[in-house]
Design a protein that fits this description.
The protein is of the alpha/beta class and 402 residues long. It is built from 15 helices and 14 strands.
Length: 402
């Protein structure tokens, strides 16, 4: 009779959902309470302020929604834009593709700049498009900061410089779902107008809490007192309803209590480690993974080092090898969850997520498991080579700066 239980824990190394710290899980084990009580704001008011730190913002406004990152995309678009508005977007992976698809389905006209998968947003092309837009018909620029499908990070600071150099007033929307809380993000410095995050990645929580930081410029764009009648419809994601309730510490609907308690504890974790140490740790873990890939004689999906993501590495398998078979084998045989290739790279890559609550030994376990799964599926890598390269790098590069 086949075994029905696999001993040990499932090793989660997809690029989200990520591992949850034990103290955060304990913080979420709470009894239901009255979200209209006089005590409730003691929990919520600090969240609106403290969450801004992971965005690199002091001037922004935080809104919290029971939603995934996809819902927060919708909130950014529907609160600020009108039917038929033009938006400019770079497409270089599955998640930039999905955001473009949403904008089109909502009734926006999307000017799509196609980039090779394995690269990111091209600031020069964005600048050219904006300079050509003499009548300022483009209302927003949409950029995915960290594209998990390909393991690519775009230079949002360079995009901002391109917008400014063009002298264009377009809003800047950034998907930071797999970067905020893990990679340096400078919302105020980059003058990002809507920065989008999900709870299940750098914030080290279960999925289900969407977080958006909104600039004053975006809030002004969302002001419906100007009498525009063609605004995109929105009810559940209406910022105005939150602006009425949030200052008092309340929400316009029933919030997810466990996730709010979890967010408080997760923010405490990030603060105690120090954000600079968090960013450094992710860089070291990302580089250690890339060292393992090189030792295996394989390549990453990212075309150049400048595109490398420090939260996920997409590994290209040899010609004739099915990456999906490696992923399935890793899960069934070794209880290791690796990320699948999506869309254009389906079956061509597998992904190791190194985001959230991880240390050296956690990562080495994932690299060892991926190596065994590849060997079992006929990929000719030197046994132990990836682990040796990664461990050598990790021994020489501590995870903390301090």
């Amino acid at each position: 009779m086949a075994a029905t239980r696999r001993p040990g824990r499932n090793h989660l190394f997809v690029p989200g959902p990520t591992n949850i710290p034990d103290r955060v899980m304990r913080a979420m084990m709470v009894q239901s309470e009255d979200h209209r009580s006089v005590d409730f704001p003691a929990l919520t008011k600090p969240l609106f302020q403290d969450a801004k730190a992971v965005y690199g913002s002091t001037d922004g406004t935080i809104f919290l929604f029971p939603a995934s990152g996809t819902g927060i995309w919708e909130s950014a678009l529907t609160n600020t834009l009108s039917r038929g508005d033009k938006v400019l977007a770079s497409r270089f992976g599955q998640f930039s593709h999905l955001w473009i698809d949403m904008a089109q389905r909502l009734g926006l006209e999307v000017i799509v700049q196609e980039e090779e998968w394995g690269t990111g947003a091209n600031p020069e092309r964005i600048g050219e498009a904006l300079r050509a837009d003499k009548n300022h018909e483009i209302k927003a620029v949409m950029v995915v900061h960290n594209e998990t499908a390909t393991g690519v990070t775009s230079d949002v600071g360079a995009v901002r410089k391109a917008i400014d150099a063009a002298g264009h007033p377009a809003l800047l929307f950034v998907d930071g779902v797999s970067s905020i809380g893990s990679l340096p993000f400078k919302m105020d410095e980059w003058k990002v107008d809507c920065a989008i995050a999900g709870s299940q990645k750098g914030l080290m929580l279960p999925a289900g809490l969407g977080v958006i930081c909104v600039s004053q410029k975006a809030l002004k764009a969302a002001d419906t007192s100007s009498g525009q009648n063609d605004r995109l419809a929105h009810v559940y994601f209406d910022w105005a309803d939150h602006q009425k309730q949030n200052p008092g510490g309340y929400f316009p609907y029933t919030p997810s209590l466990p996730l709010l308690y979890g967010l408080r504890e997760a923010l405490a974790c990030l603060n105690e480690e120090g954000l600079e140490n968090v960013f450094h740790r992710h860089h070291v873990l990302g580089e250690a993974t890339r060292q393992a890939v090189a030792a295996w004689g394989l390549k990453t999906c990212a075309k150049e080092a400048k595109w490398n993501s420090d939260t996920v590495t997409a590994i290209v398998v040899p010609e004739g090898v099915d990456a999906a078979a490696i992923i399935k084998h890793a899960y069934v045989r070794y209880n290791l969850a690796l990320g699948a290739g999506l869309n254009q790279v389906a079956g061509k890559v597998f992904r190791i997520g190194h985001v959230g609550d991880l240390n050296e030994l956690s990562l080495l376990g994932a690299i060892a498991g991926a190596e065994m799964a590849m060997l079992d599926n006929g990929v000719k890598v030197q046994p132990g080579s990836g682990v040796a390269a990664a461990s050598s790098y990790l021994r020489e590069n501590p995870l903390s700066k301090s």
